[in-house]
Every structure is written in structure tokens, then in C-alpha cells.
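Give me the fold.
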Amino acid sequence: MRSGMVAVLGRPNVGKSSLVNALVGRKVSIVSRRPQTTRHRIQGVYNADDLQIVFIDTPGLHEHEHRTLNEFLNRAASSAIEGVDAVLHVVESGAWRADDDLALARAARAGVPVIAALNKVDRRAQKQELLPEIAKLNERHAYAAIVPVSATHGDNLEGLADALAAYMPEGPMLFPPGQIQGHDLAFTVAECVREKLTRMLHEELPYALSVGVEALEDKPGLLRAHAVIWVEREPQKKIVVGAGGSTIKRVGTAARRDLEAQLDKKVFLQTYVRVRPNWSDDPAALRALGYDDG
């Protein structure tokens, strides 16, 4: 039996969360087209017959944002490499940017093997086009392996798991067999609501939202949850609520259906919107809302 921990690093919007979800086989990390959707270190567990890999999905590293929230996200991503057995550096095929250099520098400092996942290769019409790109990656860093993948299409995920398995130490499972998430149910509910908000309001409120769960009752066949959506200003609250409560109703319905599919049980979800001025620039507020500053 081999088991170990892998930190997943990369710049915003390269597909880290989508790749972790695809490897695990179920959604453990929310996704959207908006960069920096992931705000927490999230554990997803890959299980095979003689292998368990615990993936730590991290916030995208971003060099040019200076709000306190972004400082928290960068520190959370950086501290995730402590104590891992390998780092998975996710890069986007054909799109190396300055923030990729930042992510690579953090990965290299971990002192463990770094495997590159060259993501979104399904966009390449000819696979031969990948060869010069792989050669360029080899020039950037002495990667333990470079594996072309497509998180969206599920291409070569087994090859990536095999490449990581070579660096997992022998030892017992870190999580019970069959467990695929390393976070609790309240976190799952809050993140599901935030995902729907991010997708529906990404133009109006890209980063001014956070979600917490105030009450949770989990019974066989039924989950009851009260989720609070935090914004920074009263006009933002009006946007989230929508005309006659239309937007918050759509968010709640979409989140409830998603949770029911994930949990295979009936879900009763109530959502509220509250204002906490400038929470994204207030360290105390960020900690109260569950953000980890490493």
C-alpha cells in the first residue's frame, strides 16, 4: 500500500479544481470560469486498490492583488506545500504567464518531486504541437514528470495518477477507504452556495461574496442547512437578493439540487444575505469567516 499527500499549485484559472475533481471522480472543489474561485485548501482523496493520494487543492497564486484576502490566499497556497510528498504543478497548454513563474517558484521550494500537469491539451488540434511545449517546460524546471492531460475530457488521468504514485511512500491509508473529501459537511454546503453565486453574479460581484453555515442538521435521508451570504455593502445585498428575491431564490434552488445530487438525500436549504463592511480587507473578519492565513 502506498499513500501520500500532493499539493496542487498553479496560477488562477488553469483548471486545478477541475483536475482534482476529475481525479477523485466526484466534485470536492467548486469550479467556475472566474479566477480564484478556490479560496481554501481543500482535500480530495483518490483511492485505488493499493494507492491513496490526498490532493490539497489550493487557491491560485496571484502576484498583483494586494487586498488582505489575496494575501491570505497566497499564504494558504504557499503553506499547503509543507509536509507533502509531491507537488502537482498545473499549467495551461500554450499559455505560460508571469503568475506561472510564481507558482513554479513556490513548488520548487517544497524540496519534493514536482510533477507538471499540462492541462487543456484537448484544445490542441495536433498532439505533435505539445512536444516543443514539453521541451520548454523541461528547460524551466527539472520536473519529475510532465503529463499532458485534459481535466474537462478526462484524458490521461490514469497516466497522471501513475506518475504521482511513483513518489508516494509505502504506508497505511490516510483516510478511510471510500472517503473522498477531507472537509466537513458545513464546508460543502457553504462552498456549493458560493459556487452558484459566483456563476450567476460573476460580472456584478466577482470577489465581494463569502458564505458561512450557521445551522446544520444532518439526518438519514434529510439535510437542513441555514447559509449566510456575506457582502460588503448594502447595494451588493440588493444585487444578491434580486428583484422580488428572484436571484437568491435561483441560487438556493441550484445549490439545493446540486447538494441533493452529491449527498443522495433530500436537502432543505435556507439562505440569508448580510452586510459586513470591508470583510475582504479585514484580517479578523477573514478569520471569523473561516479563511486560513497559513
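The longest strand covers residues 210-219.
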